[in-house]
Amino acid sequence: MGVDSPRRQNVHHAIIFVEGRTEPVKSCNKNQKSWGMEIRKKKLRWNTIVNADLSMNVIILCICLIVVWMFVVQGFILHTDVQKLNEYLTNVSKYVKPRINQLQPVNVDIMLSMNTIQDYDEISGNLIFTASFAFFWNDELKMWNPYLYNGIVSTQLPILQTWVPALFLQNGVNQNSLYTFSNIMDIETTVVTYNYNGNAGFIIFGQYQITCESDVTHFPFDEHVCTISLYTIDILNGISLSSERGIFLDASIANAEWTIKPNSENTFVTNHTFYLTTTSTTQDKIQFSFTIKREYLFPFLNIIFPVIILSFSHFLVFLLPVVSGERTSFSFTLLLSVVVFMTAASEQLPPSNNISIFNIFLLHLFVFSILITTLVVFSIQLFYKDTYPTENGVLFKAVLLLYVCFHKTMVADESINNQSEDDNKEAQLWKKVASFFDRFCLFFFFVCFLLQLIVYGSVLANI
């Protein structure tokens, strides 16, 4: 046999491999098929990913186009519509009454919102407060169709470019205008809000000063009724006033000395008819009424309570021994203290015929203080009557008679108890009379003091 070539040897081995072991050939064919399927799956997956990325890019592009349309194109269109609407509304003169028929009045509804009470002077009756007024009306000349202006249903106009009601404070102090703008910025930032159906409204804030009815009868538990009167000077029936919303007090801030009494707010609308040469006209006036009351704790602790303690201490002067020599000085000191507190109380009360009950109470205490001081001097004179003899006047005889009547009762009581008392000396007699007089004055003024407190407390309890 000759030597086989390499190609022939390979064929021979392949034949032997095929003839001897056929199963590996079948396995190889299966592997080739699975590899082909995997390749096709990978191609399919890759195509899916590419298509998904392409779809996502298309979606993102569409979203970007929509956003650009909404914020750029629509914004430009909306801005143009806002300008057109503003031009349409401002073409109406601010001096023209917002009525198609100029003979019809404009009904203005007013709401008052109290912010805080800054100060109240009960002497002059001036109330300083901050508040906001809200005005609402219907403007027949400023209506529009929202579909013609890209769906705009409301807009705002500066207060100087449109019609606003001219109202004034009837009981204002220093000024009567409601529009108390402090600077130009306040004027420029105040706007009137309009709806497409013509409903309009705006709010103004300010500090106001009005006069109130001062009533200090029940000081320091006094209450004062304050009324904010608004009126219009239009004599051609141009404005009618109403207040369906009334007064809003829930957001008000209480003052350290004054507070608004709950459920005291009321609203009244009145009108006055004026007859001109040929026609008659009606002027409306609206009144916002509320009650302010004093925070009584401070004046009670600093004025009323010290006066009561001083009055109680004053009649205790009869317990001091005459020989101590302090009766007169103590009594005059308390009298001057009562005068000082009367002066302090009178400075807080108005000088009018409306007298406070506390003033009457102080006057009674002052009279009793003078009477106590006088009787203290008389008691000292009784005590030293044997040392410094004086004529027996009417007062001496009255006190001596009262002592004798009381002394007889004591003697009768002592005779029952088989007791005796030696009153032969005149010096001892006048000292006993003075001691009896001190006890009588102490009891008398104590009863008067209790009656004063009961009467004063009963009157204040009926507020």
From TrEMBL:
The chain crosses the membrane at residues 54-78, 296-322, 328-345, 357-382, 440-461. It is found in: Membrane. One of its GO terms (cellular component) is membrane. The keyword Transmembrane helix applies. It is a multi-pass membrane protein. It comes from the Eukaryota. Coiled coil: none annotated. InterPro entries: Neur_chan_lig-bd, Neur_chan_lig-bd_sf, Neur_channel, Neuro-gated_channel_TM_sf, Neuro_actylchol_rec, Neurotrans-gated_channel_TM. The keyword Transmembrane applies. Residues 85-295 form the Neurotransmitter-gated ion-channel ligand-binding domain. Pfam families: Neur_chan_LBD, Neur_chan_memb. Residues 303-379 form the Neurotransmitter-gated ion-channel transmembrane domain. CDD domains: LGIC_ECD_cation, LGIC_TM_cation. Keywords: Membrane, Transmembrane, Transmembrane helix. GO terms for molecular function: extracellular ligand-gated monoatomic ion channel activity; transmembrane signaling receptor activity. This is Uncharacterized protein. It comes from Mytilus galloprovincialis (Mediterranean mussel).
